[in-house]
Amino acid sequence: MAPHRGAPLLSVEGLVTEFRSADGIVHAVDEVSYQLWPGETLAVVGESGSGKSVTAMSILGLIPQPPGRIAAGRVLFEGRDLLTLSRREMRAVRGKSIAMIFQDPMTSLNPVLTVGFQIAEAMLAHGGVGRREAHERAIALLQTTGVPNASERYHQFPHQYSGGMRQRALIAMAIANRPRLVIADEPTTALDVTIQAQVFEALKLAQAETEAAMILITHDLGLVAELADRVVVMYGGRVVETADVRTLFHAPRHPYTVGLLKSLPRIHGRAGRLTPIPGAPPSLIRLPSGCAFHPRCFQSQGREPCRMTRPGLREIEVQHNSACHFAEELAVSNREGAPA
Amino acid sequence: MTGPLTAPAAADGALLRVEGLVKHYGGARHGFATPPAIQAVGGVDFTLKAGETLGLVGESGCGKSTTGRCIIGLERPTAGRVVFDGQDVATASPRQLKAIRRDMQYVFQDPYSSLNPLMTVFSTLAEPLYLSGMRRNDIRDRVAELMRLVGLAPEHGNRFPHEFSGGQRQRIGIARALALNPKLLILDEPVSALDVSIQAQVINLLEDLQDQFGLAYLFIAHDLSVISHICDRVAVMYLGRIVEVGTREEIFERALHPYTQALLSAVPIDDPDLRGKTQRIVLSGDLPSPARPPSGCRFHTRCWKAQANCKQTPPTLARMHSQSQLVACHYPEERPLVATIQA
């Protein structure tokens, strides 16, 4: 883990994204801030409805408006605020300096165009290469990401690819323009375990080749442990903890992170009974007062600050932030439950 | 709880015995063409004892759900026998079948689509009781009892499924399965649609109910950590066949089949300190089509140990060192565990 030198590549500052719905305003992303340095892999972790994907969509300007609305905040990428760019300027950024890999590879490929053409098209759209060069580079990219017989596969359509191969083709497309940042949203969730491992390797190779920074959005803590340098934990549309990956797994300082790690079944060594987090994730329309996690929190036990005051994200130790009023109480004690 | 050490062959005490189960789909003539049948399950044998949890694990398309559906009678097997409580399901009389169906219940993966959206929780849970001939007053008490058992408030009985969260809906599905005091629950991916923090709640509930009622579980899942946590014994399936069966410890610590080893090594390990210190087997290629499964050992196309005879002779499930571990491989061999570290 390199120390953070110089300016961050991406800086999300106080981002607020809301959606209008029949039941009221959904506060999907509520004052989220995080930074990403060049070449770094940042995992954004949370359960469904935690706002991890909506944050990424907001960064890329992909929030449908209406019903969505970015109500506040800035997204600084290489010094420019992406939220102030015109559609046209944003299109030049997307797919060039920032690329995205979605969960479902079938819906992100055009079924009536060959896979190879779609990869080449990504390069041609942003200029700088000729047709022949784009063709050759597309084949090379397919090879890099582990698609067998790449020069034949170039001419095939998405339905002729298996799920794992489609995801590898998408990774090839994402790195085609040597982006500075790749956002991968649950890149392996739809895949079987052994195929997951293949895609996972492809992702690592792709990142090594381009030296791009990566935002890995996932609920899979195993993936986080294997890929991330730093982790952002989200709950109820808010960031509750950020830390480097080892600190997060071994000395978490937010009760939600602690609960999440303890509730995981472990593959080696039966831990006896699991320790679930009681209750259910909150409604984003009516978030609990104060700390959104307080009704489920073992640490709070109904204490007044938790119910009354929304905790801000504050630095507990160097490069380790927690949004808990009582983060200091959660000292070393939470090591148990980790695999030996 | 450790796995039973009795050999499946001497399975007289078995609650459920599955013998040579085969399920093919299609393969009938369409005009001039006869498309090959999808061989979803290609000869599966296992036994399950009362009060035991057997995990059925494998990737999508390996036939684990089809196996479960054949056992409960949602699908008619192409061949093979399902013997429940000493009674062959295929030859059971209507009266016996009624009893079997009471004793064997199914919990589906998706708690959204497996509950009738127009029925309140109360009517959902009362229906099986009513059909079993229970009196109205008793039904009310039993529904309240069932709801309490699975951690729901009985006063919410008049609510509809959409008013509950995913975890609560899965609890309703479990309560419905428990209504008639079954002996066996077939749980088909019961927690995979749930968020991590909720998953643990439902797993704990299932463990409590098993302790309380001595239920047997056939636990179908693809998530190896969940399987490892809850199962006494585990059967690993690949392309319609069981490739390895054993106790939890045997499968997770001393697996002998290359596919089991690859499957285990593919699971990301949730400890950043072990990053790069474990050996991952990355299988090449994709799952072959179950319409044209490979000859011989079905895994040979992706196996790094495959020899000439693997392409010709299908290996049979054979007993290894212990009484309980069976492996279908011509070259079974232990491999250092994924979690062994040379620091």
What is the structure about, briefly put?
With 340 residues, chain A is α/β, with parallel strands linked by helices. Helix content of chain A is 30%, strand content 23%. Chain A is globular and about 65 Å long.
Structure characteristics:
heterodimer; A: 340 residues; alpha/beta; Rossmann fold; 8-stranded mixed β-sheet; 4-stranded antiparallel β-sheet; 30% helix; disordered C terminus; B: 343 residues; 12 strands; disordered N terminus
Number of helices of chain B: 10
| Strand order within the widest beta sheet of chain B | 6-7-8-3-9-10-12-11
- The proportion of strand residues of chain B reads 15-25%
Which consecutive residue ranges of chain B, at least 5 long each, have pLDDT under 50?
Answer: 1-11, 338-343
Q: Superfamily at the CATH H level of the domain at 8-94 and 229-266 and 274-340 in chain A? A: P-loop containing nucleotide triphosphate hydrolases
Please characterize this protein's 3D structure.
The complex is a heterodimer of chains A (340) and B (343). By secondary structure, chain A is an alpha/beta fold. Chain A has helices spanning 52-59, 87-93, 115-125, 131-144, 150-153, 163-175, 193-210, 221-227, 245-250, 255-263, 304-308; strands at residues 10-21, 24-36, 41-45, 68-77, 80-81, 98-101, 181-185, 213-218, 230-235, 238-244, 314-317, 320-322. Chain A has a domain at 8-94 and 229-266 and 274-340: 3-Layer(aba) Sandwich (Rossmann fold). Chain A starts with 9 loop residues before the first strand and ends in an 18-residue tail after the last strand. In chain B, a hairpin with a 2-residue loop joins strand 9 (233-238) and strand 10. The model of chain B is unreliable at 1-11 and 338-343 (pLDDT under 50). Classes of the chains: A alpha/beta (340), B alpha/beta (343). The interface between A and B is large, with 49 and 50 residues.
Task: Produce the secondary structure layout.
The complex is a heterodimer of chains A (340) and B (343).
Chain A: E1 10-21, E2 24-36, E3 41-45, H1 52-59, E4 68-77, E5 80-81, H2 87-93, E6 98-101, H3 115-125, H4 131-144, H5 150-153, H6 163-175, E7 181-185, H7 193-210, E8 213-218, H8 221-227, E9 230-235, E10 238-244, H9 245-250, H10 255-263, H11 304-308, E11 314-317, E12 320-322
Parallel strand pairs in A: 3-8, 3-9, 6-7, 7-8
Antiparallel strand pairs in A: 1-2, 1-4, 4-5, 9-10, 10-12, 11-12
Helix pairs in contact in A: 3-4, 3-6, 4-6, 6-7
Chain B: E1 14-25, E2 38-49, E3 53-57, H1 64-72, E4 79-84, E5 87-88, H2 94-103, E6 104-107, H3 121-131, H4 136-149, H5 166-178, E7 184-188, H6 196-213, E8 216-221, H7 224-230, E9 233-238, E10 241-247, H8 248-253, H9 258-266, H10 308-312, E11 318-319, E12 326-327
Parallel strand pairs in B: 3-8, 3-9, 6-7, 7-8
Antiparallel strand pairs in B: 1-2, 1-4, 4-5, 9-10, 10-12, 11-12
Helix pairs in contact in B: 3-4
